[in-house]
Design a protein that fits this description.
The complex is a heterodimer of chains A (about 325) and B (about 425). Chain A has about 325 residues and is mainly alpha-helical. Chain A is built from 14 helices and 2 strands; from the N terminus they run αααββααααααααααα.
Chain lengths: ~325, ~425
């Protein structure tokens, strides 16, 4: 059991699917990553990464501790005044709360629905591939387009959503104009857009699982639920955590759909950290304060993603 | 060894390409090519089809980029903050971002260009319009239109219900209540703005018509005077009791969509919106629209009036070509052509031109023109509190009024929130 759990699904999948599963693996020359000869090949990638990732991060950190004006001048090191202002500002804590709310709700629902849908998609039924292709459409549609279409659907007076509700006798819902409902409406759009993506990854994971443990469980007379809970889920955990990690990073820096649909409103009820930081930089023209917010967001992403990775490594040990 | 040299060469080429790519954004285009960034607006829709005429006559090629209002602001801000020369001309609202942009040195002053061009006749713009485009004695933009808050109403519905259109702020909620009652709740009595950043434009007249200003003469906020809470209460009650569902998210787009679809009996909006609600292609209520002055308060009917302008970026490398475009776009001949699309001309000579006044031939357009005249004569040019932090201040006002509309706060609490929120932001004006 324990060696099955450590096996990556891709490896076990290919071992099952390969035609010569019983033959010894072909000999391969291993590359020693510490060999000096490797460096010239790695250098371009390292340089590109440094220029495109590290430099902007370093610059953002510098901005956050200095006093850059909108005319481009910078009056130099300021210490942690921007961070002090941030921690004093109730809007920062409100934004943090909304960011975490959307992260928890969306991730939970997308994972649970993704599991159910992923299981259905992993079954061999006619038309499965066409269905899979269709499922990808929301995920590959630009979020801006998704936001604009949902904006039309959720219009309280003229939108399709309320017209459908009216047909079945339900009172109209103020989807985006009520601070108590708007965060849920935003979550609904994200769930619509990203559940299929989760389901696709999960269904691929399910299809690559080894069959033996399930056969053994069936012989022992385990129920379907019990098999799924005690064998399927633990085997699926590596795939599941990768899928959840991908969504986590996106959800913590949630921006595009919100920016299109509510710009953080009504009354800041959908003002996530990223939207708040954006407005501070580009509407209020306070680049240094915006940089401090972005650094806070970066720390939050690293903390949550790091937590996930730690959990994943611990679980697979 | 050979491999090493090859890959080192590859790495260098890659980095070199990258560096070239980084610098490429700014250098593009010849001296006879300009880049224009516009906000989605009736003026933009009207001028865009005319640009090929300009290109043909002047030899200057215009690269046009158009975005929704908020996105256009972001794009313009981004170009200016990064001191990019990739944008030469942009649409601007001096009443909103004038001080902010001016302080940052984003505008190239137009005074010299205007005085050198005899045909341009800058004196043709009314003094009030020119004042709105002038900051610290420099003309920072050329005016492209004039607009102000008016009250549109459905003549057919008012007749059907036997209601007289409201003339005063006191009558407004009474009329709205009558529509709500007589239509059995089927028609939204009034469509108006609720979105925080957009709300001050239509909320301002509620203050001004009661004789109040945004700020006191010493530059501090004026929301601790009793009348301010009353103005907030009037606006919020109207929105909450008689506005459309989800009104706190609405701006002109949603309001005009509702009115044009025939779902609202009144619309409190910019005079500009006539171009969409009175257009048979987009509206079901053409021929049934009346236009009124903003309802009078104790100080009379004091609307908000504003002008959009087009400005030249101080980082532009093609300033002469950029001026040629501005000169053409805000010149007499072009502004006269634009009136055909409902763009109210800021130039006096065009406003009085018979070729224009003859086109105001329907009841709706006649009333509209009268209302716009009154807006220009009596309106306040202060769309929101004036200052370097104007966009942020408008959001403070909009958020607080929004809370009253949502029933989260009462008008007195909102007035206090605005007073407290504006105080540090207005203090930035001194610095």
């Amino acid at each position: 059991m324990s060696d099955l759990m450590t096996k990556s699904p891709a490896a076990s999948g290919s071992a099952n699917a390969g035609p010569g599963a019983g033959a010894p693996p072909p000999r391969r020359r291993r590359v020693d990553p510490t060999a000096r000869g490797v460096w010239p090949f790695a250098l371009p990638a390292v340089l590109v990464t440094a220029v495109l990732v590290l430099v902007p991060i370093a610059y953002t950190i510098w901005l956050s501790v200095s006093d850059r004006q909108s005319d481009g001048t910078n009056s130099g090191f300021l210490g942690f005044a921007n961070y002090a202002e941030m921690f004093d500002n109730p809007q920062f804590w409100n934004s943090l709360k909304i960011t975490l709310f959307l992260f928890v709700v969306c991730l939970l629902v997308e994972t649970l629905l993704g599991l159910a849908l992923g299981y259905v998609m992993s079954l061999d039924v006619p038309g499965r591939r066409i269905f899979q292709g269709m499922m990808l459409v929301p995920a590959i549609t630009a979020s801006v387009a998704v936001g604009l279409v949902w904006l039309l659907i959720m219009d309280p007076s003229l939108g399709a959503a309320n017209q459908i509700l009216a047909k079945v006798g339900i009172d109209p819902v103020v989807w985006l104009g009520d601070p108590d409902i708007a965060p849920w409406s935003i979550a609904l759009v994200d769930i619509w857009q990203w559940t299929p993506f989760m389901a696709l990854i999960i269904s691929a994971g399910i299809r690559s699982l080894p069959e033996e443990p399930f056969e053994a469980a069936a012989l022992d007379g385990a129920s379907g639920w019990r098999t799924a809970w005690n064998i399927g889920l633990p085997l699926l955990r590596p795939v599941l955590t990768v899928a959840m990690l991908l969504r986590t990073v996106d959800l913590v820096r949630f921006f595009d759909t919100i920016y299109i649909m509510t710009q953080g409103g009504p009354v800041n009820s959908t003002n996530t950290l990223n939207v708040y930081g954006y407005n501070a930089g580009f509407v209020d023209h306070e680049p240094s304060y915006a940089a401090a917010l972005q650094v806070a967001l970066l720390v939050l992403v690293i903390m949550i993603a790091g937590g996930f990775t730690w959990f994943r490594q611990r679980a697979s040990r | 060894m050979r491999n090493k040299i090859l890959s080192a060469g590859f790495a260098l080429a890659l980095v070199g390409g990258l560096a070239a790519g980084c610098g490429g954004g700014d250098s593009g285009g010849s001296a006879n090519e300009i880049s224009l960034v516009m906000s989605n607006h009736p003026w933009q829709k009207a001028i865009e089809p005319l640009i090929p005429e300009f290109e043909k006559a002047s030899g200057v090629k215009v690269k046009v980029q158009t975005f929704a209002e908020q996105q256009a602001r972001d794009k313009i801000s981004l170009n200016l903050q990064s001191r990019s020369s990739s944008m030469d001309v942009f649409m601007t609202l001096p009443s909103r971002e004038g001080l902010q942009f001016s302080k940052a040195g984003y505008y190239a002053p137009l005074d010299d260009y205007m005085s050198k061009s005899a045909a341009y006749d800058a004196a043709d713009f009314p003094a009030a319009v020119k004042t709105g485009m002038t900051i610290q004695d420099k003309m920072i933009a050329a005016p492209v239109n004039v607009e102000g808050v008016v009250l549109y109403y459905r003549t057919d519905l008012f007749k059907q219900y036997g209601i007289t259109p409201p003339k005063t702020l006191d009558e407004l909620p009474t009329v709205a209540a009558a529509i709500k009652q007589k239509s059995g709740g089927k028609v939204t009595p009034i469509a108006l703005r609720g979105q925080s950043a957009a709300l001050p434009f239509t909320f301002g007249p509620f203050l001004h018509s009661q004789g109040l200003e945004w700020t006191k003469p010493d530059g501090t906020p004026n929301f601790d005077t009793p009348g301010a809470a009353d103005a907030i209460n009037r606006y919020a009650t109207l929105a909450k009791e008689y506005g459309p569902p989800g009104v706190v998210n609405n701006t002109f787009t949603q309001s005009s969509a509702l009115f044009a679809a025939g779902n609202a009996a009144m619309e409190l909006e910019s005079s500009n919106e006539v171009s969409s609600i009175n257009d048979p292609k987009t509206s079901k209520v053409v021929g049934k629209i009346g236009v009124l002055d903003f309802p009078a308060g104790s100080a009379g009917s004091k609307s908000t009036v504003l002008n959009w302008g087009i400005a030249m970026s101080s980082y532009s490398k093609h300033k002469d070509a950029a001026w040629k475009f501005i000169e053409w776009a805000t010149g007499k001949a072009t502004q006269l052509k634009l009136t055909a699309d409902g763009i109210a001309p800021p130039r006096t000579s065009v406003a009085q031109d018979k070729a224009y006044t003859d086109t105001l031939n329907t009841e709706t357009l006649k009333e509209w023109s009268t209302a716009l005249g009154n807006v220009q004569a009596n309106g306040s040019t202060e769309v929101g509190p004036v200052g370097v932090a104007a966009p942020e201040m408008r959001k403070v006002v909009g958020d607080a009024v929004g809370k009253v509309i949502l029933g989260q706060a009462d008008a007195n609490a909102a007035a206090k929130e605005i007073q407290d929120g504006l105080t540090p932001l207005l203090a930035k004006n001194a610095g």
